[in-house]
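Protein modeling request. Please complete all fields; requests missing the sequence field cannot be processed.
Requester role: graduate student
Desired output: 3D structure, token encoding
Chains: 1
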Amino acid sequence: MDGKALAAEREARLRARGIDPTAPDEPRVAANPWQSQRPRPQQPARTSSIYDAHRSIRMAHSVGFAVCLFTAVLLLFPWVTHTKILLLCFMVGAVWLARSGGTWLHSVLPSMLQEGPAPSALQVEAHDKSLFTPRLTAEALNEEWHTALDSLAWCCTYGKKNCITAAIYSQDEPLTLSKIARITWAKVSEGTFRCY
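Delivered output (196 residues):
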């Protein structure tokens, strides 16, 4: 069999497999007619940081972070020996709230502090839980601190709806605990608790 006959036979085999023999030399993969074209079921994509999570999930993290911090400080004092088990129970509850309690917290928050519908089970499962795992890093701690500040500002401004919203979220000064406390205290000391 000569070279032309071999080339013609090769082209016929390639065409039968669904490959164009005149295509440029690239890795040739035959089309598989048996392969299902249905999209794969979506796996929960883990967010890169807590900043991307639903508002109620972020607030659950903030409450859990604050309770854990407060109870950890109390455990340092010797006079709390009789209540250590109770404090540890509070800490376990705070960790649960931060990791899985976003939907529950959304249901008990006042409507002015809710943002959108309640987070789905997929959102709760997918958000980053880096602080509340055995691998505690400085980056995770920093994220939790900034998330707590954002949640505090959200509460003090009634969900960015009251008269101190522009002052707290101004770009002139970064969002800090002292800034939130100073602006909120100035308004409260005037005797104004609700301003719209």
